[in-house]
Amino acid sequence: MLPEVEQYFRIEKLPHMWCPGCGNGIVLHSLINAISGLGLDQDKTTIVSGIGCASRAAGYLDFDTLHTTHGRALAFATGIKFSKPELNTFVLMGDGDCTAIGGNHLIHAARRNINLTALVFNNNIYGMTGGQYSPMTPNAKRATTAFYGNIDRSFDLMELAKGAGATYVARATTYHTELLTKLIMEAHKNKGFSLVEVVTACPTAYGRYNKLGKPADMLKAQKENAVNIKSLKDGIVPEGKFLIGELYRAEAPEYIDQYLQAATKLREKGGK
Ligand SMILES: Cc1ncc(C[n+]2csc(CCOP(=O)(O)OP(=O)(O)O)c2C)c(N)n1
Questions:
Q1: Domain enclosing residue 21, as ranges
Q2: Which of 11, 75, 150, 234 has its CA 20 to 30 A from that of 84?
Q3: Would you place residue 272 in the very low, low, confident or very high pLDDT band (cuts 50, 70, 90)?
Q4: For ligand 1, which residues put their CB under 6 angstroms from it?
Q5: What confidence score (pLDDT) does residue 100 get?
C-alpha cells in the first residue's frame, strides 16, 4: 500500500471482507484521495456508516468512525453535527441502507440541508445478506427475492435527493475514479446536504444472477453506459444509459447554522 494511502487505514483490520471483483475498495480509494486532496485533518474528520458490505468501509479507515445500525447512519451523523458542527463528516451507505430502511432519514437530511457528505455505494442489490432486491434494483433484473425479474420500478436517487432538498447531487462509477474523487471534493465543499452516488459492481450477488459476466465486464459496462452530463446533447439521456458528473447544485440555508442562530436568539431573549 502506498504510504500516502496507508496513513488513512487501520492496517490491522485488513484484509477486508469484500468479495473478489467488488468495487467497494475502489470507492474507498477515491474517498481517501478526496480527503487527502482537501487536506482535511484526520483528527477532525469522522466517517459514519450504516450496515451492509459498503458500510464495512468505516471499520477499515483510521478516523473517528461510527459503524451504526441499518438505515440509521444519517441520523447518527445528524447527532454528530449538532454536537460538533466543525467536524468534517462523511456518511457511507449501501443503496439498500440508504434508500430502503434508511429512506426516511435520507429525505429529511436532504430537506434540512444539513452539512453532511453522503456517499451511496450503489451495487443495485442487498449484497451482504445474499442478493435480495433493493429500491435501486432496476426493473426486470433478477435477485434472490425476484427470481423471475423485479416488478418494482427503481428509484432515481439523484432525482430523489434533489426533490427532497439536497444542495449538491452527483454521480460517478468505479470506472471513473478521478471524476469520483473530484465530485467527493466538491460535495464536501458544499455547505449543506451533498449526495454522491457511486455505481459499483457486486459480481457475487447481482452480476451472477443477471449474467453480467466477470468483474471486468461489469466495469466495462459502467464505462460504456455512463454519459457525462457535460457531453449530453439536447438534454436527452440515451436509452439504457445513465448520467454521471455534477447533476445539481443549489443554495439554501444550512440546518445547523439555522439552529445555532435560533439558539442565540433565544438566549438573547433570556431563555436558558
Ligand atoms: C434492522 C435490520 N434489518 C435487516 C438487517 C439485515 N441486513 C444487513 S445488511 C442488509 C442489506 C445491505 O444492503 P445494502 O445497504 O445495499 O449494502 P451492501 O451490502 O449491498 O453493500 C440487511 C437487509 C439488519 N442488519 N438490520
A1: 3-268
A2: 11
A3: low
A4: 51-54, 70, 94-97, 121, 123, 125-129, 134
A5: 98
